[in-house]
Amino acid sequence: MTPRTRFAPSPTGFMHIGNLRTAIFEYLVAKHNGGKFILRIEDTDQNRKVEGAIDFIYNTLKLCDIKIDEGPNNEGEFGPYIQSERLDLYKKYALELVEKGHAYYCFCTEQELEEMRERANARKKPFLYDGRCSKLSKETIEENLKKGVPYVIRQKMPKTGTTIVDDVVYGKIKIDNSVLDDQILLKSDGYPTYNFANVVDDHLMQITHVIRGKEYLDQTAKYNLLYDAFGWEKPTYIHVAMVLGSDGNKLSKRNGDASFMDLYNDGYLPEAIVNYLVLLGWSPETNQEIFSMEELIKNFNENRISKSSSQYDVKKLNWFNAKYIKALSDEDYLKFIRPFLTHDVRGKSEEWINKLLLIYKDHLSFGKEINDLVNIFFNNEINISKENEEFLQSDENIPVVINAYKEEIAKIKEWNVENIAEVITRVKEKTGIKGKLLYMPIRIKISGIEHGPELPDEIYLIGQDKVLERLS
Ligand code: GLU
Questions:
Q1: Distance (Å, whole) CA 11 – CA 147
Q2: How far is the CA of 22 from the centre of ligand 1 (A)?
Q3: Nearest residue by C-alpha to atom 3 in ligand 1
Q4: How far is the C-alpha of 192 from the C-alpha of 91, rounded, in Å?
Q5: CATH number for the domain including 450?
Q6: Is residue 341's pLDDT more than 80?
Q7: Are residues 254 and 355 in the same domain?
Q8: Residue ID of nearest Cα to ligand 1 atom 9
């Protein structure tokens, strides 16, 4: 059978990096095995639905070079790929289970359920539906249905024995059936629960590998019982440990910093994000760290997915991103970085702007950072700290060097980096001063700070008039 995996997000208009990592793993399992990657939108919780969320998901996956073989915008033969458009199907299959004795109508009111919950609370037991509606007579059921009494359909769980879940990452897990709730499959509004819809859809869409968060692992016993009840073949399960936030907590929309789009908008390259995320929870056989999508597809192996959760570490992401930025051609780099520059560049030539941006190509962790790095070239006033002021007074040679620079720089006819570099050499020869005393005083005088890009570049970018003014 052709391997088929699916990414099944809820359309919340938000994708944190944990969700994205799941999508990447799903894509890689499919593509490594020559299979198909399917996008299915799980919108059965209509309260969480957000306008435009499907486009958002498409954009995110597209940016990450994850190609969807079938999904809402490119229907294959197993559509529709949006759960709210498949309601008839779920009802049909729920009724089939009722017919087979693996599910039943439940007419319990909210009040009855509340009483059950309270009783469970009082006994300090988890709430499990007590199964009373599974004992209703055929006549009562028919009468209720005729009268239009609201109902849900519940799965009838075995009360004894165990169910085994076999998972690629976690191995065989044994669950006592006595802890399984007669869970709701179909809600009173006709919508299926996630627990039901995912099984029906994974079967109908011929999904061979289900890859999802570990939080679903314990639930999977219930899904297996559903597969068995229908007589369907189970998929291969690959549950993946969580990606925790940098504070060690679960990722959530509220900790917005871990959202893919936020990272993208801050100037992280999608290739770098993908590369970073894959290695959060998967280890290649070699110690290679930089992987193109092609290499990932070639090397990915689900047997090397880690059991333990990993922690999002922005420093490590910065390291990857810096590598990817450095590897861009100058042309691509300029295209990428220019929109992040928010300083006022009126009156500056294109050449000047490009030169400025290129200087930082090898030092940049993410796009937005450029503004801080280039600050010194946009400040009209410079601030010299007390320590730097003291340094300027600390050696009698410093005024000599500064004066030499002033004279030589004033003489430059054509303002370019080569001529400036020559000036520095000349000042060195003329004054016999080298090292820190040759570079630091001029840096501090013209920018306020003791470090910056290569000195000729720095002088060039600040400009002849300003440099002379500041040296005086
Ligand atoms: N809609 C579920 C979620 O967003 C998908 C879980 C699954 O992949 O089965 O968590």
A1: 36
A2: 10
A3: 9
A4: 8
A5: 1.10.10.350
A6: yes
A7: no
A8: 212
- Ligand 1 centre and the CA of 237: distance in Å? 13
Give the type of residue at 21.
Answer: R
Which CATH number is 63's domain given?
Answer: 3.40.50.620
Q: Which atom of ligand 1 is nearest to the CA of 42?
A: 1
C-alpha separations of 405 from 195, 243, 443 in Å: 75, 55, 11
| Residues known to be catalytic | 253
Q: Are the beta carbons of 64 and 191 closer than 8 angstroms?
A: no
| pLDDT tens track for 2-38 | 999 999 999 988 888 999 999 999 999 999 999 999 9
CA of 198 to the centre of ligand 1 (A): 8
pLDDT at 82: 96
Ligand 1, CB within 6 Å, residue ranges: 8-10, 42, 198, 212, 216
Whether the Cβ atoms of residue 12 and residue 251 lie closer than 8 Å to each other: no
The atom of ligand 1 lying closest to the CA of 7 is 8
Query: In the prediction, which pLDDT does 256 show?
Result: 58
Band of pLDDT at residue 342, cut at 50, 70 and 90: very high
pLDDT in tens, 451-462: 889 999 999 999
Range of the domain at 361: 328-377
Crossing angle for the helix pair 455-462 and 464-471, to the nearest 10 degrees: 100
CA dihedral 52, 55, 59, 61 (to 10 degrees): 120
153 shares its domain with 171:
yes
Structural domain includes residue 323: no
- CA atoms within 13 Å, Cβ hemisphere of 318: 10
Residue 322 lies in a domain: no
